[in-house]
Specification:
The longest helix is centred in the C-terminal third of the chain and has 17 residues, at 241-257. The relative contact order is 0.15. Helix 4 packs antiparallel against helix 6 (241-257). Helices cover 26% and strands 22% of the residues. The strands form 3 sheets. It has a 5-stranded antiparallel β-sheet. It is built from 6 helices and 10 strands; from the N terminus they run H-E-E-E-H-E-E-E-E-E-H-E-E-H-H-H. It is globular, with a radius of gyration of 18 Å. It has helices at residues 19-24, 73-87, 155-167, 214-227, 230-235, 241-257; strands at residues 26-32, 41-47, 50-58, 95-100, 103-109, 121-124, 133-140, 146-152, 177-179, 185-187. By secondary structure, it is of the alpha+beta class.
């Protein structure tokens, strides 16, 4: 059965049971993830007989950005996890903010990526995407040739596209998509999110302008209510009041328009590098 038909039922990720271990466990650094723009450490965390692999991103290892306040990326990663859990889709691995060997940082459950039955992203020399694929953008390849970048018409990706629109994700690359052995698809690297200005930059534009599925409308309606309650209070400890208000505004705008957002033109719509 294709992976797109094996989407686990909506509900909180079973992996949330790992939160206690991530939060209270003894954190031991085992290595470093190379080629990352910020410090990313591969670790183990052990608590009450359980040991889990995890990623630790210390605030001290964050590179300054011109458009985001210094030292806030870890908090934004945790905020993205909270919003993901509030949707019931479980799209972000369990993530906590805690102290570690190099100070406060984000600690997230390590996800072992599994081979897909079919790729999620591809390049094609066809003018139009094949059945089961959505067009993203025409890209220049070797020798001056062009190819069409496409992504799978996959329910898991579509859910992630909705989440990205809510959290205003400025960096949804192909390498940030992790298919898990249980059929779930996780998104990682959510440090550049929740800006008050429109900065949505993603490879998942295939549904731009299309009507939101009924499932997404139901989830967004519930999310709007949650933002006026406990979720809003939780976000208020991680991002600014203006940024929290912007989340409410984006949810309201999605419900009002009823469609997936399209590139705005005032900000590069495709991340670089795309993977």
């Amino acid at each position: 059965m294709p992976a797109s038909e094996r989407v686990p039922e909506v509900g909180l990720s079973a992996a949330t049971a790992a939160l206690d271990v991530l939060s209270a466990g003894t954190l031991t650094v085992r290595g470093q993830v190379r080629d990352a723009s910020n410090a990313v450490l591969y670790c183990e965390t052990a608590h009450e007989g359980r040991t889990l692999a995890c990623v630790y991103k210390p605030v001290a290892g964050e590179r300054p950005l011109w458009d985001f306040p210094d030292g806030t990326l870890a908090q934004r990663e945790v905020a993205a996890y909270l919003v993901s859990e509030a949707t019931g889709w479980g799209l972000v691995p369990p993530t906590v903010l805690r102290d570690g060997p190099y100070g406060e940082g984000m600690v997230q459950l390590w996800i072992e990526s599994a081979p897909e039955d079919a790729a999620l992203l591809a390049l094609t020399e066809d003018d139009e995407p094949a059945e089961g694929w959505k067009a993203v953008v025409e890209a220049e390849v070797a020798d001056g040739r062009t190819a069409l970048l496409v992504h799978a018409d996959d329910q898991r990706l579509r859910r992630l596209a909705v989440l990205d629109a809510v959290i205003n994700n400025a960096d949804r690359k192909g390498g940030h998509l992790l298919p898990a052995p249980d059929g779930r698809l996780y998104g990682i690297d959510h440090g550049v999110t929740f800006h008050t200005e429109d900065k949505l930059r993603t490879l998942l534009w295939g549904w731009a302008g299309e009507a939101l599925p009924a499932e997404a409308v139901t989830v967004l309606t519930a999310l709007g209510s949650a933002l006026d309650g406990e979720l809003g209070e939780q976000l208020g400890t991680l991002i600014t009041a203006a940024e929290t208000d912007a989340v409410r505004d984006r949810v309201g705008r999605l419900l009002e328009t009823g469609v997936h957002p399209a590139p705005g033109g005032g900000w590069p719509s495709i991340p670089w590098p795309p993977v």
